[in-house]
Amino acid sequence: MRKLVRSHATESALLAVIAAMCVFLSLATNNFFSLGNAFDLLNTSSVNIIFAVGLLVVLIAGGIDISFAVAASVVQYGAALILGWIGGGGWISGLLIAGGLGILLGAFNAFLIHRFRIISIVATIATFNIYFGLLMFFTQGVSIYDLPDWLTDRVILFEQEMADGTWAEITLPVLVMAVCVFATWLLITRTTTGRQLYAFGDNPEGARRFGINIGAMQFIAFGWLGMMAGIGGLIQAHYAQEVVPNALYGRELDVLAAVVLGGARLGGGKGSVLGCVLGVLLIAITQNGLNLLGVSPFAFKMIIGAIILAAITLSNTSLEKLLPFMRQRGARQ
Questions:
Q1: Parallel, antiparallel, or unpaired: how do β-strands 156-161 and 167-171 relate?
Q2: What's the rounded Cα separation, in Å, for the pair 263 and 315?
Q3: Are 220 and 240 in contact (CB under 8 A)?
């Protein structure tokens, strides 16, 4: 058990922080510890988790991308227009269109990085501005409200009536998020490609000498993030029941912070799906708790930043330093 905890130190630390926060918020507020609030957290966090597992693959491969949220906005708008042209479509065609458009945008990032040897953060800063500028120029900031019925109809997977007459619901975004999380876990832990992504991110030159196709790794990583961004954008449109060009603008930094908080290394070669999901949930719980406590929204970023610093410090501190008695106990054994 001790070895298991030590091998997943970041995840264990995040679980401890989340548990402590949940206990505190349950005592400090009336509504936090309720099925309805828990389901709301899952529903509202689904899009960020979809984005996060896509970004995780890029970080594992040693890259960084801050354009994915804007790319998701572009996909939202493009998919809505295409679905209108083809007569509405359905969930299968919608996800295929959104995923395909996202892969194209991610592949464009990979092309710039690989072909012109541009540092990934510089390339994605450029595409961030290109994508957003083009989107706002062509749309004039006009939202789309006339969406296909299948996209705006709420799909409830599970519901439970509460004592006060309200309903606690788990909706379609949670299912799509679970599929994306599982697919990403399979990619990075159960495939040769996943092992190559870790190797490439940890030591690019060594990976190249070993025969790993560097270009393929970049296209796979950024393409995967693009696909997740596209799917997340479509799910956001379903959740909001409208397409707003700048609705996802600015979300990239929150997601990046959550993924790094979850143990992904900016230098590449490290990261897990579990840590990634826990990082997103920690930030979501923090925001939810601050809202229930009546804290001003302007304080959200400051307090969340402090939580992130504390959690990262906890994650980087070995368990033996936090719990000296365990080391002493181990010595006696």
A1: antiparallel
A2: 8
A3: no
